Please model this.
Amino acid sequence: MNRLQTNAEAAARSAAAIWHPCTQMKQLERFPLIPIARGEGAWLYDFEGNRLLDGVSSWWTNLFGHANPRINAALVAQLGTLEHAMLAGFTHAPAIELAERLSALTGLGHAFFASDGASATEIALKMSFHAHRNSGNTKKQKFIMLDGSYHGETIGALAVTDVAIFKDAYGDLLNHNFVLAGPSFADAPHGVALENGCCDECVPAANARLDALLHAQHAEIAAFILEPLVQGANGMRFIPAAYLRHAREATAKYNVHLICDEIMTGFGRTGTMFAHEQANIKPDLLCLSKGITAGYLPLSCVLSSDAIYAAFYEDETAKGFLHSHSYTGNALACVAALASLDIFESDDVLAANKEKAARFNIIAKPLKQHPHIANFRHIGMIWAFDIIGPYVQEPAFGKQFFTRAMQHGVILRPIGNTVYFMPPYVIEDAQFQLMIDASLKLIHDLSNT
Model:
């Protein structure tokens, strides 16, 4: 094997050989790839020993740091036992144990494993449609999504995604579903103050829109899919828990499934293990991925209600849920997930994160009070704020902010004019301070260019 030696060599060889995700490859001529040689804790290191603070948890996946010793040890032990066996007609301990633990955490039944978030969305949509069909509700073929929603980039997932840059090119391939305006500050009564990125006063009008749509179209609606509490790709838009509670009541009334997409919000990111807990509800289908393996290996899962599972439990094979892929329930991925759940329990991570977030909010006060910052918001281990000023209108603003942030030793990837911090849970006070200092310096520099 021809081992890489330098950053320049790694960037050149990668650009020549790999089609990188979510990337216009021609832009690599101006914004070269950032080679990563290794990781340790909250840091990533390039081939020349320079380190970068992983302020976005490697696309929101890493929970307990890179090269975590406990997860490493669990994987090494599993490698000597079983790396993979197909789950069609067979089973193994890691998949069984993970399914049992996820069920105990959520109160939902059978776990259907897959590889990534978009796959989980596809599975949930198919389960909802097919369960209705098996139950004789053959007209229920459409789905409700919130405006600005993002649920993945496979064909079914794109059909319930409302982010134009991902969706528009494939519009002719997609089913047409219902886009519903969620809670918006345009709905708030005059004089209501913005508080932490959302307001309960915005909810009644949004509830009325949902009720009207369900009343008029429920006969053809299979499910309502939404990201509980936070829409990630929509600029970290916060959704009040009160809206989620009403969505559960309204969908149940009309025999419409509620799908909670917790691909990003699950596993402690919003402060509770799962975001929907803060609304005290139980969805019909729950999609999990990203943090499920603490950023180690590809894995996703859909947990279903007993009623949906029962709709497929028949003698006739065609009424079963025949979705599959070769690596379903991969033993190594399941062991990584089990090791992550062990850390949650042994380290009382949710309580520790609450204390850590309180300290971080004090550190973040200068950023929150900055005149070029609007709508500073926080929930759990997510912080977000909107940068205001003429310079954010530049087409390359996001790339420039990203590139300049790395010059200060931090990885930050703005969504439009929204900058967010979503660090690994192992981040320390000094490292969070680095993100604040870098952001303040960048805003100062950009506003004076």
